[in-house]
Amino acid sequence: MTEVTEPPTKKPKMAEASLENFIENIKNSKKNLMAILSDEFTKPTQFTQVYVGGVNNVQDLSKIIMTLNEKLPLKELQHLKRARKHEVILCSVQYLNTQTQKTIQEYIKEDVYELKDAFKYFKVTSLPAVPPKLKKQQQEFSRVWSCNFHPNAYLEKLCGDQFFSINELIEHRCYMAIAFEVANYYLSKLKDNLLMSDVSESNVNATVVVDPTIKSVVAISYDNRENHPTQHSAMLAIDNVAKTQNGGAWNTADKSGIDNELQSHIKKKFANVKFGTRNYLTKEVLNEQKKNASESPYLCTGYYVYMIREPCVMCSMGLVHARANRVFFCFKNNLKGALSSKTKLHCVPSLNHHFEVFTEFL
Amino acid sequence: MVDFMKRALELASEALSAQEVPVGCVFVINSEIIAESRNIVNATHNPTRHAEINCIDSVIEHCKTHDIDYMSYFQNVTVYVTVEPCIMCAAALSNLRVKEVVYGCANDRFGGKTVLDISNFYDYNYKLVGDLMATEAMALLKQFYKGANPNAPESKAKKEKVSV
C-alpha cells in the first residue's frame, strides 16, 4: 500500500474555483435562501421586571383582575395575560418606581385599598417585555407566563428555511447568476481565466432588477465607483430603471435600462431569460384611458433587486427611496453593508417603505 | 453662512415651483459657491436625485474636466442644505469626507442623523450643524405636502391623504 505515505489530497478551496464554475453553482444549487430579519425575530427575548401577587383565594381572582384593570392597567404589558394559576400581575417595577417611593406592599395597601387583604405574597418576576411574534417565541414565553398571541402564517414561513418553492428558487438563483455573469463580462475584458476570488475579494458589484409580475429583467448595472464615487451599481440600477420610465440622470446604459452589448452577451448564456418592462404610461395617459396607477411601472415598486454584494448605506437607502420590493445579495459587505453587516436598514420601523432581504446563496 | 442658506432656500423654492420636494443645496469652498442644485426626483423619475447628489455630480464633473483629485477637493467643502440630508445623502457625503454640513430643518422621515444616525457606521464624520433658517425651510416643505406629490400613483396619493 504505497498510498499510505502520500499526503492527503487537499480539498480545493472555494476561492480557487473558476468564476464560470462558481456561476454554474450559484445557478444550480438547491439550497434555499434565508430572509434577513429584524432583531425581534433573531435576538433573545427582552425581559422586564414585574410585580406579581399570589392571591389568597382563587375564587376572588376575577374580582381582583377587574379591580386591577381599573386601578393598575397593564398598558405596555398588554400582551401578557393578567393572571396565571393563582398569581396576578400587579404592575411593572419601573411603573411603580415612577409613580411612588412606596413598596408594592404599601402601594396595594394604601392605593388599591380594596385589595389590601387579597394577596398571600408579593414577588418580582422577569416577564417578556414584548409580544411573541412567532410560535417558537410563544412556546418559550408560555413557560414563564401566558401571553396573547396571534400567529402569522407568512411570518412563520419567512422565518423558516423553506420559504421559496423549488421553482421560485430556480428563478432567484438564475437572476443572481446573471449578476455574476455581468461581472464576468466586464472583468473578462481586463483579465483571462477569472477566478471566483476576482469577484469575492474585490469591490466588484453588479445589480440586476427584475419585474416578477412578468418575469423579466428590467435593468442591469455594473459598479463604476472607480470613475465616479456615487456610481455604485445599485445607484446606477435605479437610474437605469428611471430610463425605462422616460427619465434618468446619468449618461450611461441604453434607454432600455441595459447596455446593448451586455444584453446580447447575457442572452447567449441565459437563453430562457426575458428582458424588458411593462409599458410605461404617463399620468396623463393613465387618466385618459381611465386606468389604475398600478398598470404602469412606478420607480422600483414591486421589483426584485439582485446584487453580488450587500449594498452600502447610500445604496440601501436609495433602494428604499426607489421602493424596491425585495433585495437579494450573495456576499456580505462587512465594512459598509447596511442590510445585515453594519445595520438592517430595511428593519428601521420609522421609514416609510420596507423591502424584504434574502441571502445565503452559497 | 446665512447668505449661503438663503441661496439654498431660493433653490428649494424653485423646486417647489417645479412640483418637486422643496430642498435646495449649495457646496461652498472658501466662502465661494462651487456647486448648487435642488431636488429633481420627479423630473428624472429617479428617487435618488436629491439636491446633494446633484451637487456631488457637478463637483465630480468639474474635477474631471480640470484634472483635480476630487477626494482632496471634497475635504474643503461645506454643504448648505435646507433640510437635514437623508440617510442616502448623508452616507454619500460621509464617503466623500466633506468638511461640514449645515442644514435648515431636521428630516424626521429620512434623516441621516434623526432617523438613523449613520455616524455610527463610519470612521469619518463631517461636522454637522442644524437649525439655520429652519422655519423657512420647514415652511416650504409644509407648502409642498399640503398638495399631494403629483408624481406618486393616484391611489397612493389618496391613501396618504386619508391617513393624515
From TrEMBL, chain A:
PROSITE patterns from the UniProt entry: CYT_DCMP_DEAMINASES_2
Keywords recorded for this protein, A-Z: tRNA processing
Cellular compartments per GO CC: cytoplasm; nucleus
Gene Ontology BP annotations: tRNA processing
Record-annotated CMP/dCMP-type deaminase domain positions: 225-358
Any one GO MF annotation of this record: tRNA-specific adenosine-34 deaminase activity
Gene3D superfamilies in UniProt: Cytidine Deaminase, domain 2
Keyword Ion transport: no
A Pfam family that the UniProt record links to this protein: dCMP_cyt_deam_1
Family according to the record: Belongs to the cytidine and deoxycytidylate deaminase family. ADAT3 subfamily.
Cited PANTHER family: CYTOSINE DEAMINASE FAMILY MEMBER (PTHR11079), INACTIVE TRNA-SPECIFIC ADENOSINE DEAMINASE-LIKE PROTEIN 3-RELATED (PTHR11079:SF156)
The protein's name in its UniProt record: Probable inactive tRNA-specific adenosine deaminase-like protein 3
Lineage: Eukaryota, Metazoa, Ecdysozoa, Arthropoda, Hexapoda
Encoding gene, per UniProt annotation: LOC118279654
From TrEMBL, chain B:
Residue ranges of every copy of the CMP/dCMP-type deaminase domain listed in the record: 1-114
A molecular function (GO) term: tRNA-specific adenosine-34 deaminase activity
Keyword terms of this UniProt record: Hydrolase
Biological-process GO terms, alphabetical: tRNA wobble adenosine to inosine editing
One Pfam family of this chain: dCMP_cyt_deam_1
GO terms under cellular component: cytoplasm; nucleus
Entry keyword Membrane: no
InterPro entries (UniProt xref): CMP_dCMP_dom (IPR002125), Cytidine_deaminase-like (IPR016193)
Protein name, per record: tRNA-specific adenosine deaminase 2
Species whose genome carries this gene: Spodoptera frugiperda (Fall armyworm)
Gene that specifies this protein: LOC118275499
